[in-house]
């Protein structure tokens, strides 16, 4: 009875992030493995290579490296970006149990990426390849339960992204409607 109580507390989803304490533990454990085995850059680089081979058009967001000209294995810029990206994920994992701070971080990254016209769909593609890449790098150390925990992690990350995208699109629509109506009303007034 007591045991069942603690198990259910351990699996209770957080009100904001939807992640249970067990999810947090599994995510932190797999992330530690990636760090301890010096897999940060290889994982990030493999992720981008997989992503770009499935969706070559996503390469066009990046001006700093071009996989069409320089292959992934020797592309220094790709390694640098892989590390930048993985550092971003590292911050998420660090603040995973501080939802307010995590949400603030997610907003910051969302705004900087929406400015580059990265869509929620792009983010979802990235997330799905990220989880596949973790599986390929960690092999049997990456359990099905860990995989589900990471899926939930990115579900939350992308929900926030989609919310910010909607808000920004709403602001842009409102501004353009105001501009149109100002133009229309000035036309009506003009002789
Ligand atoms: C969870 C998902 C992602 C995280 C955590 C992340 C993280 C970051 C970070 C920390 C930076 C550098 C700081 C900044 O400019 O904001 C960055 C830059 C960038 N990201 Fe992301 N990113 C993600 C997804 C994506 C996706 C899906 C794309 C588009 C395919 C993308 C495209 C870019 C580009 C083009 C830059 C600028 C690169 C440069 O100037 O060299 N990111 N990202």
TrEMBL record:
Family to which this protein belongs: Belongs to the globin family.
Identification of the protein by name: Globin
Cell inner membrane is among the record's keywords: no
PANTHER family: GLOBIN-LIKE PROTEIN
Globin domain mapped to chain residues: 18-166
GO MF annotation terms: heme binding; metal ion binding; oxygen binding; oxygen carrier activity
Pfam families linked: Globin
CDD domains hit by this protein: Mb-like
Keyword Heme: yes
Keywords: Heme, Iron, Metal-binding, Muscle protein, Oxygen transport, Transport
InterPro entries, per the entry: Globin, Globin-like_sf, Globin/Proto, Mb-like_M
């Amino acid at each position: 009875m007591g045991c069942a109580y603690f198990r259910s507390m351990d699996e209770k989803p957080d009100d904001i992030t939807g992640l249970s304490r067990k999810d947090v533990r599994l995510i932190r454990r797999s992330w530690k493995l990636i760090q301890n085995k010096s897999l940060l850059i290889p994982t990030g680089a493999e992720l981008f290579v997989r992503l770009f081979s499935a969706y070559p058009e996503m390469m066009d967001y990046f001006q700093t490296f071009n996989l069409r000209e320089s292959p992934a294995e020797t592309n220094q810029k790709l390694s640098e970006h892989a590390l930048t990206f993985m550092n971003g994920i590292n911050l998420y994992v660090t603040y995973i149990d501080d939802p307010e701070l995590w949400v603030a971080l997610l907003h910051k990254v969302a705004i900087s990426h929406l400015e580059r016209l990265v869509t929620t769909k792009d983010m979802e593609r990235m997330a799905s390849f990220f989880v596949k890449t973790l599986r390929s790098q960690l092999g049997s150390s990456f359990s099905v339960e860990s995989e589900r925990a990471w899926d939930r992690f990115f579900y939350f990350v992308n929900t926030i992204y989609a919310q910010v995208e909607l808000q920004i699109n709403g602001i842009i629509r409102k501004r353009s409607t105001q501009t149109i109506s100002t133009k229309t009303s000035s036309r009506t007034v003009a002789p």
